Amino acid sequence: MSAERSNHSPEHEQFVSEEGRSERVKVGLSRVIDTLPFKCSADLDRRSVVTTLQQKFEESGHQFKVSDRGWILATDRSGNQVDLTEAVSEALLTDQHLCDAESVSAAVESGALGVQAKSDLRTTEQKVRYVRKFGEEAFAKLPMTRQPKVDTNDVGHLTAQQWKNLPLSERCRIAGIVGDKGVGEILAR
Q: pTM score, two decimals?
């Protein structure tokens, strides 16, 4: 520790350490964004996107660790390691304000992303090709926008909106486990 820093309180030293870690997490998240086959919204600067992602992850119980080489390791609320590239991709793709729809459509067109929502198909030609390949029923079942994946094994944190987006078969399975009272608790969140 330098002589200059030794004059500061432990609270200040802890603050500096935490701010440094937070910035390294943001740099790591930005690095992941650079590897994705689509772009962030042109309406936002990179810092805004990365800060929003970091907040979303931390609010959902994710923990970040910074390795000595600057790589970011993420764990979920249960302590299980998370594929950060997959998590960042999903978080961006399911938030229309953070993601550039045209670049998502181009990534779908090139085959870098699969179709998971009607919004992925921007042109009539893309929609017609999808219906020809998979059928009208498959197209009708697509949600309008991409939906976040829901960990149905962690029903203690399932929200009412997530519940409504689950397929009926999954809602029935969960209802059989948690009962009417548990479903009521989910719907109250």
A: 0.73
